[in-house]
């Protein structure tokens, strides 16, 4: 979609997009999003809307709408009507100094955001990964929907969840988000206590008085009492649908009894929504790193129903867009150099671009220091190292992965080891094989483990 195909004007699609983003950023402080970028580049290369739609996994109508909004934006910026037919000629008539691929981004406002945790809603530093966002938004509109967002830590799950909830609120829905990594470990020791905590948190989120005593009866058991509480009290109070998002669901996998019963309960609610209008008010979103390492009954697991969304790493075009958000006038070669070290890992990419922009650090200097104690990744790498050193078996596995050649067969890992390392974001699963996620990890751990 963003291939470097030379056009008649001598500027390829990627260079034209880079230049346009600098122009837009200088005037508005914003950048084209990923879908707008795809429409621009496809149009620059002479593609039809239906071809662009197919490459983005979107409908023709949606791409046409994005295109119409883009041409209106460019018409305002360039001071003349811009359309799909005259895009290139309109840009070629524009002042050449404003449209050079190597234009100086020094005028960019230095309001960079330190990349830590969730990227706030509305931030220009959030990079969309089409068609994921649109698919999530559309699915939330469906009665009784269930979505599963899967990715290791620091890949953008929480940022996506925040946007999903924001979009749901704009559609008039109620929203609640529970982060399970902040649940006290003692609550996970007993199913009855955990489900009461769960009901209490949802009740508080809906700003209703707690009425557990009216619905909780030992003779019926914890799961039935929990369902009765939702069915008899919470759901009837709702005039609008409720989006209930559970982040860091992996925490539950460490407690097999809780996991087996809680996930069966969620699956049951999703199934009830197929025939019960009351349960259709509830839309569930589960964010997790992996499906866990405990066996769940295939007919009672929520991890084989609903819409699965697996967050990919950034591609070259998305990294280029993010670089320009930080005011860096990068070309393809510079993007490739960074990707050779960190792949498309969102957090590692953000932290590199932030420091290079804020400290005016050249890419060459960054790459030279990346693996040293003075490098930008030193704290991130050291935290991983400390965790591994406390678990010698995991450390041994990572050491083997770091030292093996590309042609060697990776070592066999247990389900628990795969779960722990994938959750940390250190490994990639390629079919039945396991590899370290990026060259940064391979070089660092090969020296230290």
Describe what you observe in this structure.
With 449 residues, this protein is of the alpha/beta class. 49% of the residues lie in helices and 8% in strands. The chain is globular.
| Strand line-up across the major sheet | 2-3-4-1-5
Largest sheet: 5 strands, parallel
Q: Helical amount among residues, as a percent range?
A: 40-55%
Based on the structure, what is the oligomeric state of the protein chains?
single chain
**Helix and strand string, N-terminal first?**
HHHHHHEHEHHEHHEEHHHHHHHEEH
**What is the CA-atom radius of gyration, in angstroms?**
24 Å
Feature tags:
19 helices; 449 residues; 49% helix; globular; alpha/beta; single chain; two-stranded antiparallel sheet
């Amino acid at each position: 979609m963003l291939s470097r195909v030379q056009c008649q004007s001598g500027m390829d699609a990627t260079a034209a997009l880079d230049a346009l983003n600098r122009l837009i950023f200088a005037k508005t402080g914003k950048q084209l999003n990923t879908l707008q970028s795809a429409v621009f580049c496809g149009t620059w290369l002479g593609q039809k809307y239906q071809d662009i739609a197919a490459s983005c996994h979107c409908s023709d109508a949606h791409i046409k709408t994005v295109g119409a909004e883009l041409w209106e934006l460019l018409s305002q910026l360039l001071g003349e009507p811009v359309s799909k037919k005259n895009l290139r000629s309109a840009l070629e008539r524009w002042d050449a100094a404003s449209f050079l691929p190597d234009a100086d981004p020094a005028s960019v406002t230095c309001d960079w955001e330190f990349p830590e945790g969730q990227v706030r809603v509305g931030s220009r530093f959030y990079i969309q990964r089409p068609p994921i966002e649109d698919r999530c938004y559309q699915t939330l509109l469906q009665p009784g929907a269930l979505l599963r967002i899967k990715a290791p830590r620091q890949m953008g799950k929480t940022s996506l969840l925040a946007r999903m909830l924001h979009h749901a609120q704009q559609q008039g829905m109620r929203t609640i988000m529970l982060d399970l990594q902040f649940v006290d470990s003692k609550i996970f020791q007993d199913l009855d206590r955990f489900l009461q905590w769960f009901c209490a948190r949802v009740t508080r989120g809906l700003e209703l008085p707690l009425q557990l005593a009216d619905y909780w009866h030992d003779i019926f058991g914890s799961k039935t009492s929990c369902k009765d509480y939702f069915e008899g009290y919470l759901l009837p109070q709702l005039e609008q649908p409720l989006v209930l998002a559970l982040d860091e669901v992996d925490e539950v996998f460490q407690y097999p009894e809780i996991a087996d019963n809680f996930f069966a309960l969620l699956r049951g609610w999703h199934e009830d929504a197929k025939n019960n209008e009351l349960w259709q008010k509830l839309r569930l979103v589960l964010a997790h790193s992996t499906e866990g390492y405990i066996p769940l009954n295939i007919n009672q697991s929520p991890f084989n129903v609903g819409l699965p969304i697996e967050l990919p790493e950034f591609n070259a075009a998305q990294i280029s867009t993010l670089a320009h958000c930080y005011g860096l006038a990068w070309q393809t070669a510079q993007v490739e150099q960074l990707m050779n070290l960190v792949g498309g890992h969102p957090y590692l990419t953000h932290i590199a671009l932030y420091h290079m922009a804020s400290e005016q650090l050249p890419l060459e200097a960054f790459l030279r220091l990346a693996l040293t104690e003075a490098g930008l990744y030193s704290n991130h790498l050291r935290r991983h190292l400390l965790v591994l050193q406390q678990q010698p078996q995991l450390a041994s596995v990572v050491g083997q992965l770091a030292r093996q050649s590309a042609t060697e067969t990776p070592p066999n890992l247990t389900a628990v080891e795969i779960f722990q390392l994938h959750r940390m974001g250190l490994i990639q699963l390629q079919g039945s094989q396991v590899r370290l996620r990026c060259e940064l990890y391979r070089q660092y751990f090969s020296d230290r483990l």
